[in-house]
Amino acid sequence: MAQEIWFSPLALAVLGLCVGSFLNVVAHRLPVMLEREWWLDVADNQLGDAEAWRRVSGQKGAPPPAFAQSAQAIAKSLEALPALSLARPRSRCPHCGHVLRWHENLPLLGWLRLKGRCAACGGAISKRYPIVELITGLLFAACGWKFGAQPQTLVWCAAVALMVAMALIDLDTTYLPDDLTLPLIGLGLLGAGMGWTGTTLESAAWGAFAGYGALWLLAYSYKKLRGVEGMGEGDFKLLAGLGALLGWQLLPSIVLLASAVGAVVGLALIAFGGHKREVPIPFGPYLVGGGLAAMFFGQALTQLWFPGL
Questions:
Q1: Nearest alpha carbon to residue 230 among 286, 291, 283, 163
Q2: What is the structure's pLDDT at 273?
Q3: Residue 213 resides in a domain
Q4: Within a domain: residue 59?
Q5: Domain membership flag for residue 283
Q6: Over the stretch 57-87, which tens digit does the pLDDT of each residue have?
Q7: Bond preceding residue 285 cis, omega within 30 of 0
Q8: Domain that holds residue 303
Q9: Which of 14, 111, 149, 303 satisfies CB 3.0 to 4.6 Å to 7 for a cystine?
Q10: What is the pLDDT of residues 127-137, one digit of tens each?
Q11: Tally of domains within the chain
Q12: Is residue 148 part of a domain?
């Protein structure tokens, strides 16, 4: 009885609202944290690396003095920035810096109570925050409905959380961080190995391999034909994660659905939204959409694309 209550769709919906609130933080801060690390890596390990400079330039001697000056300026500027992590600083208003009190930070309820406005300055709080919380809550509830009131359902909820975070970050930055894609691959393989996902370990391993390899081959061929990058490595790893989670059998359905929806949306953005053709459109959100559809409607989705199978 306790298990049926704690892992019921309603209880998972509440958990999803809380997780969705955290995912808003992840989507906002993780890319910034990664970019700071990249800049610091350039300053510490690239601009001052004499051996690397000699290999790249074919010249003897130390890098130009301007490199060292740039490295110092970058490091100094980064050190002057306030510390940033997923836990610190506390959430605050982007307009006035007001630190949100606990009741203002309640998932969904806090935004509704404040009527979408900062309590201190009255500045608008983006609707995206409650929407992400609500969507995550609904997806967690759907996991409870689909997979039952059992602890293994949390594996699917964790996969949903990773996918939602990846979709948001890719939309904002066109990044798909290893911090999220690799855990999805690991979760899929672990879940299969432990018998939590209903996918055999062999199918999960082939799913990871085929998911990565298929998009890598497509991107490689596109670059050879057009001379430009058509897809990032993060997309390969995301599809590898979906293959590990759901098995190789559902990969065609995921890719077909993601490609179809992505093509329609992309053409609409170009035709009606003023989107320039040369500006890349993130593919990760469509892969996530295809993955979620396969997760909840796997067999029906396969029948839609491949009748008779």
A1: 283
A2: 74
A3: yes
A4: no
A5: yes
A6: 888 877 888 888 999 999 999 999 999 999 9
A7: no
A8: 174-309
A9: 149
A10: 999 999 999 99
A11: 1
A12: no
